[in-house]
Specification:
Blueprint lengths: L50 E5 L5 E5 L11 E5 L4 E8 L2 H9 L10 E6 L2 H12 L1 H14 L5 E7 L5 E7 L7 H11 L2 E6 L2 H8 L23 H6 L6 H4 L14 H8 L9 E2 L4 E8 L4 E6 L6 E4 L1 H12 L18 H5 L15 H19 L1 H6 L1
Helix pairs in contact: 3-4
Protein name: PSP1 C-terminal domain-containing protein
InterPro entries: PSP1-like (IPR047767), PSP1_C (IPR007557)
Pfam families: PSP1
Length: 391
Amino acid sequence: MACTSCSTGKDGQPKGCKNNGTCGTDGCNKLTVFDWLSNMSLPGGVEPFDIVEVRFKNGRKHFFKNTEKLSLSIGDVVATEASPGHDVGIVTLTGELVRVQMKKKKVAVDSPEVLKIYRKASQKDIDVWQEARDREEKIKQRSRQIAIRLKLSMKISDIEFQGDGSKCTFYYTAEDRVDFRQLIKEFAREFSTRIEMKQIGLRQEAARLGGIGSCGRELCCSTWLTDFRSVSTSAARYQQLSLNPQKLAGQCGKLKCCLNYELDTYLEALKSFPKTDVKLKTKKGTAVCQKIDIFKGLLWYAYEGEWMNWHTLTPEQANKIIAKNKKDEPVSSLEEYAVELQLDEAETKGFSNAVGEDSLTRFDRPKQQRKKRNNKKRKKRKGNPSRSKNA
């Protein structure tokens, strides 16, 4: 969904619009919404919805009333109401789809949070806005130095200037409560602007900063994910994942949100499986569950004292034995119910490289042959010293 200015340049190199998050078509931004109702006309006598969605820095979006009946479309730069002064943002959504978004985010039409749009931004508004944004990186570095000097246990992750440059919002993360009264005085004296501090969570910080996940794609929280549900280690246990914090944690340091994506499917599949802590009682002995495979639909049991010999059962067979145990009906052994697995062709053949180079030391062979040749030459020279002298 990139705009035309992001196309390739000379020699196939990426051109880039260099707008740094202020794309005019809103195709290169976070949490972009496709207006699938844009080509549909309203019925006769129905007025268009007078609220539009406006995006600010790092995907921050709010709804504003178009009280002046301006002709707005996606990509227009507008000056909106703020406290104090005004802010500058880009229109990302108009029409009836805004009503759907407001209902999804549970924002009422008559809510006091819905402010109004003053006007389309003039060139002077845009110049002031760009100058303020150019100062953000230097101020962020300087603010971190001041926080370190004051020995505050906090991390300033991002800052955002208001469109008119009258207010600067500092986003920070901290584990405990921070007394930043002295910090605000230092900031006001250093930067000569109104200061506002906002504490955000680690997941919100990762969403604002963005990045690439372990899957190789852009982070879900910075592209489409808006609600951050709690993720527990039980989600990893149900999916039989190793409880390794380095693999399960995302860039925010918390458990990955994608652990919840397939959790419902695993829970639905586990309903047919018996509990792993239930033991199977037979005449031969008591069997304990050693392993389950949700994808193949199999369980492995071993008798107590014979831990090396595993017997494969299906969930239906294991449930039958459990039901008989509850009725005190005798079960001779697991061998009556054991399943003989038929290995796939890929498993029987083993690993084979498509290129045919299955040896990891194939590049070391020429070096070994050279060493052998050199050793043979040395032995010949030692055996015939006159030849070595003549040589």
